[in-house]
Amino acid sequence: MDTILFKTEIGSFIGNEKDNSYEFNNIKFANASRFEYAELINKYDENTDCTKVGPATMQKRAYKEFEHLEIPQRAFYHKEFRENINFSYSEENGLNLKIYTPKEKGTYPVLIFLHGGGFDSGSIYESPFDGDSLTKRGIVVVFIQYRLGIFGYFTHEDIYNKYGHDGNFGLDDMYKGLSWVKAHISNFYGDSNNITVMGQSAGAMSIQYMLLSDKSNDLFDKAIMMSGAGLFPKFSLPRKSNDTHEYWLEVMKLAGCETFDEFKELDSYKLLEAVDKQRSLRKDSTYNTMPVVDQYLINDSVDVLMKTPRELPLMIGITNNDMFTIILAHISKKYAKAHNAYLYYFDIDAKGDNNLAFHSCDLRYAFGTLSSSWRPYDETDYKQSEIFMNYIANFVKNSNPNGDGLAEWNTYKNKAMHFTSTYNKMERIKNFKLILNTFKGDPK
């Protein structure tokens, strides 16, 4: 692969020349020690090598003992997005991003993507995440990594005493990444005054948290939320940070640590071993290992903040076999109607097995990366991927997905843009199918 030397005001970067773009991997945007908030990096060495992928942030997948591929759902997503890819993991160097920019010099709208993974796993180097096909449509594409699991959402009174808030390291990393892009993307032909943030699953939920905070006001102008937007049910509301202290103190005890300083220096394997044991002992781990009400990034109960969110152009979507399918469909429709959002319903069953349009299947269509999948996608899939990318690019450019040659997409009243193998048009979402798929359950 040919390389390119890109000279900027913050340093020079060696990237890869792809079909439609220049690709820059592993640009470290911030420094962060364990259980400390990140500090931005604003200057780089000359000829920084960005030709090779960087490490993912530290997570359970770093050690095969904790990935639990004997669980069918985990094995499914491993095969879907990570099989035959050699990942590395780092606590020190995981806060990195990658950029795809059109080859022709100009000023282009920017799309920033935040990956999913339940707030405890995931990486921008998984196989669906390539921005080359979207840059062909005249946009800059950026992927941002953030801290996960215990590294992203641990809480403790010593952290609070130091910073005045605790937890939400991962969410704060996203803010720092967005701030880096806002400050520096013009060096990569990006328009810092036309930024869209896009996330899927936990990435989409994170965007929704950002819309509840005035700290996001200057960071992006539009948002796309895939399989993660909606009015939060009471049972899934983020807890106050001090309400999660007891959970993490139990983890510290399982790790054999009496003090925060001991725990902070513990080997990452032993730390994750304690987390894994705690998950086997408690059924509420999910609600203790996600964003918290920290009185800083999330400054009040989410059900209160949801009454007055930041309003901006929105595109949101669901699939026909999404997570908690009928529930997500219900809350997404209500949210789309309340905020005049463009809603899509992705109803293209994945080929190669019986898992229908499973949670996250729309990612490959959105990035034009069907060819890197094991699935036997055909001409209809590639056509729908082109259409989906055109809608996304139009929204990124103009706050409106509509354009020449595309079926008209209106904001949600009672119909969504229905993506099928044979057509795209505004239709009502049929709940009966979603109810059946909800009981079908997770991919196997």
Helix-residue proportion: 25-40%
- Please give the CATH class of the domain at 3-239 and 294-312: Alpha Beta
Please give the largest β-sheet.
13 strands, mixed
Q: Calculate Rg over CA atoms.
A: 21 Å
Judged by helices, strands and strand pairing, the structural class is alpha/beta
How many separate helices? 16
Fourth-level CATH superfamily of the domain at 3-239 and 294-312: Alpha/Beta hydrolase fold, catalytic domain
- At CATH level 2, the architecture of the domain at 3-239 and 294-312 is 3-Layer(aba) Sandwich
Bin the strand percentage.
Answer: 15-25%
CATH topology of the domain at 3-239 and 294-312: Rossmann fold
Give the CA-CA distance, first to last residue: 37 Å
Strand and helix layout:
Blueprint: E1 3-8, E2 11-17, E3 21-28, E4 30-31, E5 39-40, E6 48-49, E7 56-57, H1 64-67, H2 72-81, E8 89-90, E9 96-102, E10 108-114, H3 132-135, E11 140-144, H4 149-153, H5 157-163, H6 169-184, E12 190-200, H7 202-210, E13 222-226, H8 245-254, H9 260-264, H10 268-281, H11 285-288, H12 302-305, E14 314-319, H13 325-338, E15 342-346, H14 362-367, H15 379-398, E16 416-419, E17 424-427, H16 431-440
Parallel strand pairs: 2-6, 7-8, 10-11, 10-12, 12-13, 13-14, 14-15, 15-16
Antiparallel strand pairs: 1-2, 2-3, 3-9, 4-5, 9-11, 16-17
Outline the structure in words:
With 444 residues, this protein is of the alpha/beta class. It has a domain at 3-239 and 294-312: Alpha/Beta hydrolase fold, catalytic domain (Rossmann fold, 3-Layer(aba) Sandwich). It contains 16 helices and 17 strands. The protein has helices at residues 64-67, 72-81, 132-135, 149-153, 157-163, 169-184, 202-210, 245-254, 260-264, 268-281, 285-288, 302-305, 325-338, 362-367, 379-398, 431-440, and strands spanning 3-8, 11-17, 21-28, 30-31, 39-40, 48-49, 56-57, 89-90, 96-102, 108-114, 140-144, 190-200, 222-226, 314-319, 342-346, 416-419, 424-427. β12, α7 and β13 (222-226) form a beta-alpha-beta unit.
